[in-house]
Design goal:
The structure is a single chain. The protein is of the alpha+beta class. It has one domain: 2-Layer Sandwich (Alpha-D-Glucose-1,6-Bisphosphate, Chain A, domain 4), CATH 3.30.530. Helices cover 35% and strands 29% of the residues. It has an 8-stranded antiparallel beta sheet with strand order 1-2-3-8-7-6-5-4. The chain has a two-stranded antiparallel ribbon with strand order 9-10. A hairpin with a 2-residue loop joins β7 (119-126) and β8 (129-136). It is globular and about 50 Å long. The termini are far apart. Mean pLDDT is 92; it is low at 1-9.
Length: 177
Amino acid sequence: MQHLSSARAACILGDMKIDEIPLPSGSLIAPFAKKEAHYTDCFETPVSMPVILEAFIRAFYTQPLFKAERLVLRIAARQPSSDAEAHALAAGQSDRFAVWGVEGRTDRELLMADRSGRTMSWLMADAGHLRFGSIVVPERTKSGRLTLGPVFHSLLSAHKVYSRALLSGAARRVQMD
């Protein structure tokens, strides 16, 4: 279930426009929107020059904001990661990075799942745009109902702000290289 009206939801971070858009049809993330009780989102920002996926992955996972997340994962999940590992992932030389493993990859997209299988991250470098999306997989309650849970719902607004900030940081970084 995708939580987005048909109109684009936009946010300006500094001078960078970040839109929340419908999932691109045919993308690696698109099938998850059709799955019962799954959460999906997609954020997009225009870029002034063509960007290859490798550069986007490298910029995304080595930006300062994401390095803070990596620090939390090193401490809380005992899962260290390095810029060198991010570069290996970007170059297609590794299918693992911190708590994530590659679920799918094309020349324009990367889909990563965390080791629990409950959350996934998606990156896409398309002509003139960079996109970042998330998937949250529901759990089954004792009664058999699928739910994302109260923690997810309480953190959704923060997740959207963080997602926009991550995409903005990666876009700035990739355009400076």
